[in-house]
Amino acid sequence: MKVAVFSTKPYDRAFLQAANAAYRHELVFFEPHLTKETAILAVGFPAVCAFVNDPLGPEVLGILARQGTRLIALRSAGFNHVDLIAAHNLGMTVVRVPAYSPHAVAEHTIGLILTLNRKLHRAYARVREGNFALDGLLGFDLHGRTVGIIGAGKIGTVVARILNGFGCRLLAHDPYPNPACQALRVNYVPLPDLIAQSDIITLHCPLVPETHHLIGVEALSRMKPGVMLINTGRGALIDTRAVIAALKSGKIGALGLDVYEEEADLFFEDLSNRVIQDDVFMRLLTFPNVVITAHQGFFTREALSAIAETTLANITAFERGRALVNEVRADRVKR
């Protein structure tokens, strides 16, 4: 099948081409994001492969449909950037990669927690400048601390398993309790209780209308003073302006982000020679107790291999009329 692959970097090409040796699709790679301006590049392609920051709203989907596209193959687990109702109305099928490597994102989450707690980012910079003082680098034992996990699916369960090894007290909130998580003696509690009791809160839930700005003014007001907040899920799970206010007041003692609600204009690009125009993002960078990575939680060899394999298998299943186990539709999305 002829596939237009958007938002591609050299690593995307490498892993997709390696996996494609077994599938033999005609992959045509495009570096730009898929937008209403670039959708013309997909003329005559029955399938389009999109990434997490390609905005697939009604206008873009309409252009693609008129040009002959029938399949949207997402190489991501998240699908909040796709208007599923519009896709359905246009007769388009949407498939995704529901699980590539939960270990990749979970381990990155733990890395952010350890970095913020033990001030590794600041210690690294100090030592390189010949400053070996320990003032300002004081951390705390993770052992015995209460960690709240919002979203206890595959990633959240791996996070729980790792933190269980540290000896943390684990709380979780999820509308669908996970037996694997319960086996780790994770205590499922209502969201307000988790927010009020946790020393560290980490987000692993999907972005749907009900979770947009889940962490906002009200949630922040319930948190312990000095709480650590980690988000490796989706940027808009938190209200960034409210979080900045909480950082200024000391309510949030440490913030780790691998995602940002306006990341589409920033992440995955080298902007080191430009003036970044996002004032909210630049304000975040001024805090010494904030660590931001550019949506790299998924970025391991194992995850990229799995993403490529599942994406191409999804395309093959569609082409051959097989059951689409990874199809995502508006009427099947859990709320």
Report on this model:
The chain contains twelve helices and twelve strands. β1, α1 and β2 (about 25-30) form a beta-alpha-beta unit. By secondary structure, the chain is α/β, with parallel strands linked by helices. The protein folds into two domains: about 1-100 and about 300-330, Rossmann fold (3-Layer(aba) Sandwich), CATH 3.40.50.720; about 100-290, Rossmann fold (3-Layer(aba) Sandwich). α1 (about 10-20) packs across α12 (about 300-320) and α4 (about 100-120) crosses α6. The longest helix has 19 residues, at about 300-320. Helices cover about 35% and strands about 15% of the residues. It has a seven-stranded parallel β-sheet, with helices on both faces. The mean pLDDT is about 95.
Brief rundown of the structure:
With 335 residues, the chain is an alpha/beta fold.
Low-pLDDT stretches: none
**Relative helix content:** 25-40%
Helical stretch tally: 12
| Neighbour order of strands in the largest sheet | 8-7-6-9-10-11-12
Mean pLDDT: 96
Q: What is the rounded distance between the termini?
A: 33 Å
CATH topology of the largest domain: Rossmann fold
User: By helix and strand content, what is the structural category?
Assistant: alpha/beta
For CATH, the homologous superfamily of the largest domain is named as NAD(P)-binding Rossmann-like Domain
CATH architecture of the largest domain: 3-Layer(aba) Sandwich
> Helix and strand succession?
EHEEHEHEHHEHEHEHEHEHEHEH
Give me the count of strands: 12
